[in-house]
Amino acid sequence: MRVIRRTTLVISVLVIVALGVRFFGGSFTSRGALLPMLHSRKNATVVDDLNFGWAQVYVVKTNSGYVTAVVQRQGLFWHLLATGVTNKTSDPVQTISRSSVDVNGHQLGVLAVETTTTHVRAIEVGPLKGGPTSQIQKKIITPGHPIVFTWKSTIVNYQAVALSNKGKELYYYGYPKNTNTINSSQLRWYPAS
Question: What CA–CA distance (Å, rounded) separates 141 from 39?
């Protein structure tokens, strides 16, 4: 009789926990918290998986472009904290994923770039002119192979440039020069000259 009561109690607790996890959108794994977003987009595949300790960031390729998903652990469960979609363009250099998150003193920044041209050899990202040069990151890029930059800080005041084999700036990431109007769809890669 006692065995039946204990078994019933254990099963009841497990069912309640499982329903609670599903009802509140949590998961026991970071990838599990990502599943509802993946199922809502056709042919979604995870391109990169970045661990920040307090959060996991996924760069996901879909039919309509790339999505950045930030998943955070809260107690025993993982929850989808934020998603970001980057506008798909036909530019020779494209930002395919960008995320800047600040939650309860925890910060992260992610910038993923892809190119379709062999003229671009490297991408360099760092603080605006006058900022600390120790935070500048430079990575080699090849057509069709995204590269990902990460920081344990937000990327609000950063600049990015695409460089040739000889180190000449070919493109810059930002808004058009000599404009007074700012529209988020204009945040893209422009020729440097």
Answer: 30
